[in-house]
Amino acid sequence: MSSTGNGECTVCYEPLIVDSTPLRRITEGCTHEPDVCLDCLAQSITAQAEQNVWDQIHCPTCQARLRFLDIKEFATPVIFERYDSHTLQKYMSPDTTFRKCAVLGCDAGGFVDPKVTSFIHCSKCGGRTCFACNTEYHKGIACQEIQQRRQKKTKTEEVASSAKEWKVRPYEMYVVPIVASTSFMFIVNQL
Q1: For 82, phi and psi rounded to 5 degrees?
Q2: How much is the pTM?
């Protein structure tokens, strides 16, 4: 392993080697060449993130604030995932044009200008979410109708889950309600 020629890490004092030193300035705001090893930089980001200063993570040398892409490159995957989630939550306040993706299992989302389009196209799963009612996009169907369909589906599911268990007795006729309609089916047990 060769030295970078920049001396030692300003945090751990180990020699800076090419394989363990950032290849660029830590962030655009830094006025110095990289003088911290990648391990110490990741530890610095982790320590700052764990102190709940998510939007104020800075260079351990000069205090220049790191950008999203800097943190993505230099933080551990676990810390970056938490940072990314925190950043997303910050921008999800009700006064923004951000909507979470409505596709089941997707945790992404996006921004939209409601004057230009009525849906968000998710870059993660490819799904589309209606901006107005925050459901999967329903081109040509009014949001109110979608809400009515959802309510009807919920009521049907409630009826199905509360249906009584019917006992079977030999040579008796019993009635079984058909959940999706108001009809009844008569069954004769022939045991």
Answers
A1: -65, -40
A2: 0.49
